[in-house]
Specification:
With about 325 residues, the chain is an alpha/beta fold. It has five helices and 13 strands.
């Protein structure tokens, strides 16, 4: 039975530490997602297209009837993550609050980091494969609703049989590469073949210092980047720069130096791309007095951190990805 007078103080401090740890991880990749709450285990999402232009109405004539076409659909199913840790009798008895703070803070960080790496790896592995095996041995799809990997030269639209579209390049970051990505954005279409008004607003990179600094210099240069002349840098202030800490990592989160040059040009306001649904927001659960939070054999108090969510890709028209290859 948990009856010690220290209980309230320990739980209060542990909760504060967990929250601090969770908030230390900025969940950068979620900025590229349409994040929603859900109360269902499985949900289906479809793309719709149509109504590109209003039609001319002549005097006395009826308005033209518009039509909406359903495109591809994708299904998301909720999965839970969690981690637990303990506070020993000795830590409580001898007021080792610094040690308690470190353990609970790391518990919060671990929860946020798992959410961030899951969201990031949709882009990482979506550059080269239709799925990957995560750190728990599960197969995770990295396809958009048309059935091909997130970044691919052969995307399709339901109403455009035989036509393919690309959102993948293999060029290292530079002005020419950025213009190549912008050009692909101008060719994005919806499932009826209508030109999309997609507006890229963010350059996304790994956290490798070389590419990070290259983008920063490119964006802040007052002259044309890489050219010694007096022409204006038209890119100054045009894009935001988003750095994904886990972009260049393997399935376990270890650094992968082979892919540090990955980058993307993205539309963060798009509603046709990445979706994250959350049924249980990150939750910290301490033990309760008189209940089973205390381990009889060791006198340890158990604390756990959990969340339940799923994520995936609907359409491909939210970003252009580059593997950054120079050849």
């Amino acid at each position: 039975m948990i009856t010690t007078t220290q209980f309230d103080d320990v739980v209060k401090n542990a909760t504060v530490s967990w929250k601090a740890g969770f908030n230390e991880v900025p969940l950068v990749a979620q900025k590229l997602y349409d994040v929603r709450d859900t109360k269902v285990m499985t949900s289906e999402h479809s793309s719709f297209s149509g109504y590109t232009f209003a039609e001319r109405k002549q005097e006395g004539a009826s308005y033209a009837a518009g039509s909406i076409n359903q495109g591809y659909s994708t299904t998301l199913s909720q999965l839970r993550i969690g981690l637990m840790d303990s506070i020993s009798w000795e830590m409580r008895r001898f007021d080792k609050y610094r040690e308690i703070d470190k353990k609970m803070r790391q518990l919060g960080r671990a929860t946020a980091k798992r959410m961030d790496i899951d969201a990031t790896h949709q882009f990482t592995f979506g550059m080269s494969a239709a799925s990957y095996t995560n750190r728990n041995g599960e197969t995770v799809a990295t396809t958009t609703a048309d059935g091909v990997q997130t970044f691919n030269a052969s995307h399709t639209a339901t109403g455009m049989s035989g036509s393919t579209y690309s959102n993948l390049i293999t060029t290292a970051f530079s002005r020419a590469a950025l213009e190549e990505a912008e050009r692909l954005f101008t060719r994005f279409v919806d499932d009826s073949g209508n030109k999309l008004d997609a507006r890229a607003d963010t350059i996304v990179t790994t956290d490798d210092p070389t590419i990070v600094n290259q983008v920063k210099e490119f964006m802040k240069s007052t002259l044309i980047p890489d050219e010694a002349n007096n022409a204006t840098n038209v890119y100054q202030g045009r894009y935001k720069h988003l750095v994904l800490p886990y972009f260049a990592t393997d399935a376990n989160g270890a650094a992968n130096t082979d892919i540090v040059n990955y980058w993307m040009l993205a539309d963060t306001k798009s509603n046709v791309g990445p979706i994250m649904e959350i049924s249980e927001h990150p939750t910290f659960t301490p033990p309760s007095k008189g209940q089973n939070g205390e381990v009889f054999e060791t006198d340890e108090w158990m604390f756990k951190s959990s969340a339940c969510y799923d994520l995936g890709m609907l359409g491909w028209q939210f970003a252009v990805g580059s593997t950054g290859a120079t050849s």
